[in-house]
Design goal:
The protein is of the alpha/beta class. The chain has three domains: about 55 residues, Orthogonal Bundle (434 Repressor (Amino-terminal Domain)), CATH 1.10.260; about 130 residues, Response regulator (Rossmann fold, 3-Layer(aba) Sandwich); about 130 residues, 3-Layer(aba) Sandwich (Rossmann fold). Helix content is about 45%, strand content about 10%. The chain contains 14 helices and eleven strands. The strands form three sheets. It has a five-stranded parallel sheet, sandwiched between helices. The chain has a four-stranded parallel sheet with strand order 7-6-8-9, with helices on both faces. α5 links the parallel β1 and β2. α1 packs across α3, α5 packs across α14 and α9 packs across α10. The longest helix is centred in the last third of the chain and has 18 residues. The radius of gyration is 24 Å and the shape is elongated. The N and C termini lie far apart (about 70 Å). One of its GO terms (molecular function) is DNA-binding transcription factor activity. Pfam families: LacI (PF00356), Peripla_BP_3 (PF13377). It comes from Paenarthrobacter nitroguajacolicus. This is LacI family transcriptional regulator. Keywords: DNA-binding, Transcription, Transcription regulation.
């Protein structure tokens, strides 16, 4: 007959809840109580799998990755790079989708998902820095993305401002002067959207081109969002000769809508994106975009997190490295 948690509880002289807390690596268990439960697990042969074995060392060799939605191509490709980087260092990765929901993000920081991992890579979109710090506890945590920036938190950053400025400068060098931006609203200053918009504005100013808020169109960062935003621009009669999607999905949606409407790309309208997802190379025409250093981001984030895990908190200085970016010039905006 299989050994149950009730058997372990009886053998250790503790409650069923205490056994569950030990198995889930709850922080506030007395060491002597935890040891009695571990001894009972060993003696009875209960749950002789990774979780039970990890209780001895206090290490699961698992990293957690929390992101909004794996259907977003950049997140899917970043997750793949993170898994490769972790594998090379002897770790595995558990992935949780938050759906941009604050309750889901908080649950990943505090709940069973976190108890299964030694540390967490986290792309927050709903929680602010104070909420993250309050919920995170003592386990190592490294942030990705720019929705939250705080000097108290480890994070690996994209050069959003400089990279967006580089894309815009490239479009301006090609003779474009009416460059529409998809994925931000006039006045945005924070997060990836705000930082990329500020890079666009800086490049316009450096070239002596006036900023026009009518060319900035807010929308969801998806292909249908890019297509819809482009359709609204075309229907409004606002003149534009280039489109800068603040991610590649937006740019690809714009590219589709322009072609459906009979616009020639790049002759009538140049199109550029941001992220350099795999699909960008195979679009027709292929998509000019900026590669934000995704592989470097994954490598540095995993390395930083594992250093925190294996140093057991002895490294005190917060680290916030930036990844290098590069422009990928292709057919949509030569």
């Amino acid at each position: 007959m299989a050994v149950t948690m009730n058997d372990v509880a009886r053998a250790a002289g503790v409650s069923l809840k205490t056994v569950s807390n030990v198995i889930n690596n709850y922080e506030f268990i007395r060491p002597t109580t935890k040891q009695r439960v571990l001894n009972a697990i060993d003696e009875l042969g209960y749950e002789t799998n990774l979780t039970a074995r990890s209780l001895r060392s206090g290490k699961t060799s698992m990293l957690g990755l929390v992101l909004a939605d794996l259907s977003i191509p950049y997140y899917a490709e970043l997750a793949s790079d993170i898994m490769k980087a972790a594998w090379d260092r002897g770790y595995r990765v558990l992935v949780e989708q938050s759906g941009n929901e604050a309750d889901h993000e908080k649950a990943a920081l505090q709940g069973q998902f976190r108890s299964l991992t030694d540390g967490l890579l986290f792309i927050p979109l709903a929680l602010d820095a104070e909420q993250i710090i309050e919920a995170a506890g003592n386990k190592p945590l490294v942030l990705l993305g720019e929705f939250v920036e705080d000097p108290r938190l480890d994070m690996v950053l994209i050069q959003n401002h400089s990279a967006a400025a580089a894309v815009t400068t490239h479009l301006l060098a090609g003779g474009r002067r009416r460059i529409a931006v998809l994925g931000a609203n006039d006045g945005d200053t924070t997060g990836s959207n705000g930082l990329r918009l500020s890079g666009y504005q800086a490049a316009l100013a450096a070239a002596g081109v006036e900023y026009d808020p009518a060319l900035v169109v807010g929308c969801d960062w998806r292909r249908d969002g890019g297509a819809d935003a482009t359709a609204r621009l075309l229907d409004s009669g606002v003149a534009f000769d280039a489109v800068f999607g603040l991610n590649d999905a937006l740019a690809l949606g714009a590219l589709h809508e322009l072609l459906v409407r009979g616009k020639k790309v790049p002759d009538d309208v140049a199109v550029a994106g941001f992220d350099d997802i795999d699909e960008a190379r195979f679009a027709s025409p292929s998509l000019t975009t900026v590669a934000p250093g995704r592989t470097e981001i994954a490598e540095r984030a995993v390395e930083l997190l594992i250093n925190r895990i294996e140093a057991k908190g002895s490294i005190s200085d917060v680290q916030q490295p930036e990844a290098a970016f590069s422009l990928r010039v292709r057919q949509s905006a030569p």
